[in-house]
Write a structure and sequence with these properties.
The protein is built from twelve helices and nine strands. A hairpin with a 5-residue loop joins strand 6 (116-124) and strand 7 (130-133). Strands 1, 2, 3, 4, 5, 6, 7, 8 and 9 form a nine-stranded mixed sheet that branches. By secondary structure, the protein is of the alpha/beta class.
């Protein structure tokens, strides 16, 4: 039984990106792992060929091919069903793990008694060039237990989890979006400690197709539903959640492209208005923000963001880190 099982789903990555991700796993200083890779694009022959070759060359890499496209959450559950490790590490098929990622995460999880541990990350572009860094993440479980009900700052493909904890909450749930945020909230509700380290142990690839106009409104609505669900005495079971979430999205016309586009533009205007205010352009800021805030969903979004940012800044002043 390996120490770590890596859950990975491949879909539309380039062959170069996929090969780089797999090479970064093979270079880990903690080498006692297996990689359960699910190809969620059965007709993508280029990725199939690469993964078949990796499986043939390294017995730690195991390929599973979906008959049809199942989406990320279902694909990760397929990978989980084959996993035998004590720890579960997430990894996207176009990201890069730093050589000591697994070694450091296992050591920190053992030292601090957490069930889930996120790392920090640098951002890379499509060509693999570093283009930025993720902001500071609260590290202590008590801090994250305060912050996560207001929003997530964790980096999903960097996360390592106890396999027993992930199975105790029945793995991932296939939602329209924010499956990772739903998982963090279910971990908290079940009493599992979530921690983080600000060591940058992952290079997270930013891709041009990562967010569409319709996604922003959908993410806001799903996030609002999940936060309200978390505030209940008991978190909804999977069947109830699907029914309630579908009704919530229908009520707020999530599928209406025009409404989604207006929401996205208004959120953009809010952001530009804040920048204008910081630069001293008061009239421009008012011109951008006041019309946007006339929309009830945008006001709710702004309030949601304000609550998160206020708590985040409070926790950042407190500091705290894992040694």
């Amino acid at each position: 039984m390996p120490t770590i099982s890596v859950l990975m789903a491949a879909y539309n990555e380039t062959p170069t990106q996929l090969a780089a991700a797999l090479n970064s796993l093979q270079a880990q200083t903690l080498s006692d792992f297996e990689v359960e890779i699910v190809l969620d694009a059965p007709d993508n022959q280029a990725l199939r060929d690469i993964l078949t070759q990796w499986q043939a060359n390294d017995a730690r890499f195991h390929l599973h091919i979906n008959a049809d496209n199942m989406g990320l959450a279902n694909s990760l559950n397929v990978a989980l069903s084959h996993a035998t490790g004590t720890y579960i590490a997430r990894m996207d098929a176009d990201d890069l793990a730093m050589p000591k990622r697994f070694e450091r995460q296992v050591a920190l999880m053992k030292a601090n008694g957490v069930a889930v541990l996120s790392t920090n990350a640098t951002f890379i572009d499509e060509r693999g060039q570093v283009v930025g860094e993720h902001d500071w993440i609260p590290e202590e479980p008590a801090q994250l237990a305060e912050l996560l009900p207001l929003g997530s700052d964790l980096i999903h493909p960097s996360v390592m989890m106890l396999a027993s904890a992930l199975r105790a909450v029945n793995g991932y749930r296939p939602l329209p979006t924010a499956e990772d945020y739903d998982l963090w909230l279910r971990f908290l509700k079940a009493g599992f400690a979530i921690g983080a380290t600000n060591e940058r142990l992952l290079q997270y690839r930013l891709r041009g197709n990562s967010m569409t106009q319709g996604d922003r409104y959908k993410v806001f609505l799903v996030t609002a539903y999940l936060q309200a669900a978390y505030r209940r005495p008991a978190y909804p079971d999977a069947q109830t959640q699907v029914k309630e979430l579908n009704a919530w999205l229908t009520k707020h016309q999530q599928a209406d492209a025009a409404i989604s586009a207006r929401f996205t533009q208004n959120v953009k205007n809010l952001s530009e208005g804040k920048q204008a205010l910081k630069a001293g352009h008061v009239l421009k800021a008012m011109h951008l923000t006041l019309p946007a805030l006339m929309s009830p969903p945008v006001r709710a979004y702004a309030q949601q963001s304000q609550r998160f940012n206020k708590k985040y800044q409070q926790l950042r002043r407190q500091g705290g880190n894992y040694a």
